[in-house]
Amino acid sequence: MIGIIDVGGGLRDIYGAGVFDRLADDSVPIDYCIGVSAGSANIASFVAKQRGRNLPFYLDYPARREYMSAGNVLKKGSYLDLGYVYGTLSKDDGENPVDYDTMLNNPTRLVVVATDAETGEARYFEKSDAPRNDYRIFMASSCLPVFCRPIEIDGHFYYDGGLSDPVPVQKAFDDGCDKVILILSKPLDAPTTGRRDAFGARAIRGKYPNAAAALLTMAEKYRTGVELALQFQKEGKLLLIAPDDTDGVKTLTKDPVLLKALYDKGYADAGKAAAFCAGE
Asked: Is the predicted pLDDT of residue 67 greater than 70, yes or no?
């Protein structure tokens, strides 16, 4: 079984969108997908067989005040309006709807990582947990502390999956994958100090102390996951695809020229995936 992991990275994960479009163009067979944060959205479009659907979410929509703005903080309590992204735009009657029937009926397994705000532990949702026009599992996986309010699903509140399992390599192999493609949206040697996470942890500690604790150790978990991935790569079981440089693109960079260049880099870097999956 061949699996793929997209760890997200906000708008920087347009790199991952480029990878998936190349996989679609090269007809690379994928049996299992697991996504974290923006990576879960990339994967939803891939499993729905909607090549190119993700691009406007990175290049066009972020310029809209409804997507992200200070005004959203005043009106909705969140800088990022995930309801606009995964609701208004993505529902059947939206501007850029998910092909729900194709996504649901595709035999490729789709797993979405979120973090339980109460326990700080990972929750692994399946695509069957997303009813038609209710894409809260993707909202939960992308819910950054401070920037967003936690997402409620069945009485539980969730934050971004990166808090609890930012690089779910072990999960993919535990679920039966023989080979795994891992997409990172920043270079292997990029610093992961976790300094910025301390601010977010302080902001949510009062109400969600376990989620705050998970956020404080997110950078360490990321490094550990990447180290594990490199070991699997040495064994020939994993292909790591990561940019050599993000060329100035950060989590919330809106510059479409910089973003498109990073997309092109992901598309080019994914050219080695077909040979890896074929065992060449």
From this structure: yes
Of the candidates 41, 32, 77, 34, the one whose C-alpha atom is nearest the C-alpha of residue 61 is: 41
Task: Supply the pLDDT for residue 196.
Answer: 75
Amino acid present at 173: F
Residue 77: pLDDT band with limits 50, 70, 90? confident
Residues contacting 228, CB < 8 A, separation 6+: 167, 169, 170
Assess contact for 199 and 146: CB atoms under 8 A.
yes
In angstroms, the CA 103 to CA 112 distance is 13
Half-sphere exposure of 120 (CA within 13 A, CB side): 15
What whole-number distance in Å separates Cα of residue 116 and Cα of residue 113? 10
Find the range with the poorest average confidence among 60-74, 113-127, 233-247, 266-280. Answer: 60-74
| C-alpha–C-alpha distance, residues 35 and 26, integer Å | 21
* Res. 74: pLDDT tops 90: no
pLDDT average, residue stretch 40-54: 97
Residue 269's pLDDT is what?
97
Instruction: Over range 27-34, report the average pLDDT.
Output: 97
- Residues in Cβ contact with 144 at an 8 Å cutoff, skipping those fewer than 6 apart: 10, 37, 80, 159, 160, 200
Q: What are phi and psi of 127, to 5 degrees?
A: -65, -25
